[in-house]
Amino acid sequence: MKSDHTVPAHIGLFGAAGAAGRSIAAALRAQGVRYRAIGRSRPALEAAFGDDPNADIVTWNPDDPSSVAAAAAGLHTAVYLVGVPYDQFATHPPLMRNTLAGLDAAGVERLILIGTVYPYGRPQQQPVTEAHPREPHTFKGRMRREQEDLVLDAHGRNGLSTLVLRLPDFYGPGVERSFLHGVFEGAARGGRAQMIGPIDIPHEFIFMPDLGPVVAALVHTPAAYGRVLHLAGAGTITPREVATRAYALAGRAPKLMVAGKTMLRAIGLINPIMRELVEMHYLLTDPVVLDDSALQALIGPISTTPYDEGIRLSYEAAEAAEAARRALKLQVSPGAEPIKG
Question: Residue limits of the NAD-dependent epimerase/dehydratase domain (predicted)?
Answer without folding.
Answer: 14-219
